[in-house]
Amino acid sequence: MATLFSAPFSTSVSAEPLAANTDVKVDVKEVEVGTGETAVINAKVLVHYTGWLMDGTKFDSSVDRGEPIAFTLGAGQVIPGWEMGLQGMKVGGKRELVIPPELAYGAQGAPGAIPPNATLKFAVELMGVTLPNYTNIDNEELKALLARGVPLVDVRRKEEWDQTGVIKGSHLITAFNERGTLDKPFVPGFKAVAGMEDEVILICRTGSRSSVLSQALADQVGYKKIYNVSSGITKWIKDGNAVEKP
């Protein structure tokens, strides 16, 4: 299997996650708040669940099988409604998710189990979390790191920098082209900014692309101190923070 930084740079990512580009939402009910680690993008999670159609028909249950499922949150291994509904849960927590068809199995359904255009209801319990090998940060943490002189790499494309502006002092190194594949100049450009033992911050529009890169740089290249701005420059600007023209 090709890795993100191996030739021929075949791994691709979508520009942003579905959660950032749709007005359709998951109805999340907090049944019990956990006390353990928090589920974040690129964390490996262990989940028990039971799923029903809205008429009360149970179509699947890991609880009945006695075997929770494991997957990487944000990697597209489960339906989008789960990706959205599980984020922020703590180990030991329980939620009820009501997921519209657009974020579940859509017009095609799942033959033999889920009819077309079905809204689904899930009871989920977070059993375990293995955190990714990088650190997600918010705007206040970003400010503190910048004040210490930690370099910030903006991985968006030129048209995005021009549209929103950039944070002063950012290193502008495009990671993914319009097709979603890795730009070959990214790796040498990034290595010129930070060595594998150095602290470095990544930012994109909403935190999606930078989280993919943070994970790959940690796991595949060996960077030890990577920070990902989890809500991207969108939240930075929304909170009234300054940007400048690139």
UniProtKB/TrEMBL annotation:
Keywords: Isomerase, Rotamase. Pfam families: FKBP_C, Rhodanese. The keyword Isomerase applies. The keyword Nuclease does not apply. InterPro entries: PPIase_dom_sf, PPIase_FKBP_dom, Rhodanese-like_dom, Rhodanese-like_dom_sf. Residues 42-130 form the PPIase FKBP-type domain. Belongs to the FKBP-type PPIase family. This is Peptidyl-prolyl cis-trans isomerase.
